Every structure is written in C-alpha cells, then in structure tokens.
C-alpha cells in the first residue's frame, strides 16, 4: 500500500505537458527569427553542429526528472500494516454541559470555553488512557466514542458550542446513562465518568443514574462550574431574559452535584480559574486498577521520498551533460 503524506504536490505533475508545449513554441519562434535573418537551409548549413533531436531528448529528460521530483515532494510511504497494540489505562467519559447557562462569564472567557480549555489540557496529559466525550443539555449524545486518538479528541472538542444540542435544559441523569452505555466491551474495572456542569435546572434524576453507575463499578465525578452569586447569560449581544422581561441569572447548584458524586462513589470538585478541577480527579482515577486494552493500529509508514529525489537528481545531471550539439565522432 502506498500512501502520500503531502498529496497536494501531485498537482504539479500537470505542468509536465506544458514543458513540451512551451518548448515547441520556443522552436517555432526561433524558426521565425532565423527566417528573418536569412534562408533557413543556409543558416542550418552555417551551424552544422546544432542538433534538433537533442533538444527534444533534453526536454524529455527534464520532464521525467521533474516528475520524479514531484513524487518525492509528495512523500510516498509504504509499509502500512495492521498491528495489535496493547496498553494499560483507564476509560474516562467526560460529560460536558453545553446549555445556554454555560455562556455565563464568571470564568474567563466563559464557563464553556474555560471547561473546553481544561479538557484540552487534560488530553495532553493522557498516555494510554482512553477518553470519550458526551455533550448534553436537555438531552445528550456521544460527541466522541472512547478512543486513544487524542488529536481527534481535540478536534471534536473545538467544534463544541451551545448549539451542539438543540434542546435546552440540564439533563445530567440522561448524560450519565449515555456515558454508561458508551464504555467499550473490554472495560470492566477502571471506568469513570466526569460530569462538568453548573448543575442548575436538572430535569431528571441524576442521583439514581449515578447509583446505577456505581453498582456497575463505574465511578462518577462531578465538577461544578459557576458561582454562588450567579451571572447573567449573554446571548446575541444582549443578556438573556425570561418571559417577564427580567434578566436571567444562573447560579451554581453545588448540593445536587455533591449528592451525584456521593451516589456515584466519586468526588465533587468546584472549578476554579487557576485549577479547574480535572487534574485532581484524573490523579484519583489513575489510582484505580489499570486495565489492559487491545486495539488494532497501523504501523508507521516507511518514507520513500529519498529514492525519488535520487532518480530526479541523476536525470537532471544527465540532461545537463547532453548539451545541444551533435557528436563530432561517429561509432561507424
């Protein structure tokens, strides 16, 4: 299997036919200039050493060398083989609240962006652990299944907004149930759910969901985002108002989140501006018994560009050594 690491350079191959077109046009205009100078046959007799065939040979060698040079630029790689990879770690499902209340600015720049930044820094710390991402508001869904592809995890994380879930609300229980169903079949011991939310306006029974998770050996941790005094919710350049025209103020509901963490055999952490709370929770998760995961991955590709560059160099050198004149000596 051949893979090109930078396939955009392959477009340069379309320049090869243009080399022949330009060379043919150059010969055409050269003949026109010769005709102005004098009779074409007489001029050719005055330049007996000039070779027309070598010009076409040189442009052909140059085009072929350019072709191999472009292939080298695109970095061809071979050696992609499936390989079983074994690693020990934990499976962590992060349930992130994306309701409108997460736009409150009691964190810089707001609750949601501060949470996303903390998760991104957490991903940088992971090695062999698996991570999954769930977004929830009035309902929940899996944004990213459990994976060790941390690059993809960051890409999915950056795309999250309050519009990721169209139904507003804070269904913490539904998010925990979704997380329970999202763990892999290989995971049995080291499993944890981290719920990041302000805990306000919960619409179901998160405590019952946390108890169910604990009975299955899954620990539930909660991180409270918000302040006791509360903050208004900026939306579309204005502050969100209720039906009566009053400004909506969103406050942190710590009591509910503490009860959820206690029922889930986990712990509650209140997020701060300097320490958001994910690091101490992950340190606690790492104390759990590590579990071995088997996955099928691709081996690294072997770079082949140097061979194509070498061929191109040889062809360029030959093209320069040929010259434009006929050979003075003949073999026979």
Count of separate DSSP helical elements: 10
Beta-strand percentage? 15-25%
Helix content: 40-55%
- Reading side by side through the largest sheet, how are the strands ordered? 6-5-4-7-8-13
Q: C-alpha Rg, in Å?
A: 33 Å
pLDDT < 50 runs, ≥5 residues? none
The arrangement of helices and strands along the chain is EHHHEEEHEEHHEHEEEEEHEHEEH
Mean pLDDT: 85
Shape: elongated
Give the total of beta strands.
Answer: 15
Query: What structural category do the secondary elements indicate?
Result: alpha/beta
From the N-terminal CA to the C-terminal CA, the straight-line distance is: 49 Å
The major β-sheet equals:
6 strands, mixed
Keywords: Cell membrane, Membrane, Transmembrane, Transmembrane helix
Domain VWFA: 91-285
InterPro entries: UPF0353/GerABKA_families, VWF_A, vWFA_dom_sf
Protein name: VWA domain-containing protein
Describe it for me?
There is one protein chain. The protein is α/β, with parallel strands linked by helices and 332 residues long. Helix content is 40%, strand content 21%. It is built from ten helices and 15 strands. The strands form five sheets. A six-stranded mixed beta sheet has the order 6-5-4-7-8-13, sandwiched between helices. A three-stranded antiparallel beta sheet has the order 1-2-15. Strands 3-14 form a two-stranded antiparallel sheet. Helix 3 runs antiparallel to helix 10. The longest helix is centred in the N-terminal third of the chain and has 22 residues, at 16-37. The radius of gyration is 33 Å and the shape is elongated. It starts with a strand and ends in a 10-residue tail after the last helix. The mean pLDDT is 85. Residues 91-285 form the VWFA domain. Keywords: Cell membrane, Membrane, Transmembrane, Transmembrane helix. The chain crosses the membrane at residues 6-26, 55-73, 305-322. It comes from Candidatus Cryptobacteroides merdavium. It holds the Pfam family VWA.
């Amino acid at each position: 299997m051949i893979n090109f690491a930078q396939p955009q350079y392959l477009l340069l191959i379309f320049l090869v036919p243009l080399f022949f077109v330009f060379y043919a046009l150059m010969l055409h205009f050269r003949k026109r200039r010769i005709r102005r100078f004098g009779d074409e046959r007489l001029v050719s007799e005055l330049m007996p050493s000039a070779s027309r065939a070598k010009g076409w040979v040189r442009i052909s060698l140059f085009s072929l060398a350019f072709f191999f040079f472009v292939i080298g630029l695109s970095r061809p790689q071979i050696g992609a083989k499936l390989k079983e990879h074994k690693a020990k770690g934990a499976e962590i499902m992060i349930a992130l609240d994306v309701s409108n209340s997460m736009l409150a600015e009691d964190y810089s720049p707001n609750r949601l962006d501060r949470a996303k930044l903390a998760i991104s820094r957490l991903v940088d710390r992971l090695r062999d652990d698996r991570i999954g991402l769930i977004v929830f508001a009035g309902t929940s869904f899996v944004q990213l299944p459990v994976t060790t592809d941390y690059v993809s995890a960051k890409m999915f994380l950056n795309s999250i907004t309050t519009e990721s879930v169209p139904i507003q609300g804070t269904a913490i229980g539904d998010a925990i149930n979704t997380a329970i169903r999202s763990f892999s079949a290989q995971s049995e011991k080291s499993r944890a759910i981290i719920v990041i939310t302000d805990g306000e306006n919960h619409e179901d029974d998160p405590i019952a969901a946390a108890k169910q998770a604990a009975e299955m050996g899954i620990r539930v941790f909660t991180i409270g985002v918000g302040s006791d005094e509360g903050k208004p919710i900026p939306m579309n350049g204005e502050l969100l108002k209720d039906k009566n025209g009053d400004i909506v103020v969103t406050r942190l509901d710590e009591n509910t989140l503490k009860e959820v963490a206690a029922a889930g055999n986990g712990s509650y952490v209140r997020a701060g501006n300097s320490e958001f709370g994910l690091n101490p929770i992950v340190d606690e998760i790492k104390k759990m018994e590590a579990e071995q995961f088997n996955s099928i991955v691709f081996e690294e590709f072997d770079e082949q560009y140097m061979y194509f560059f070498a061929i191109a160099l040889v062809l360029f050198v030959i093209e320069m050594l040929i010259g434009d004149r006929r050979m003075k000596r003949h073999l026979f």
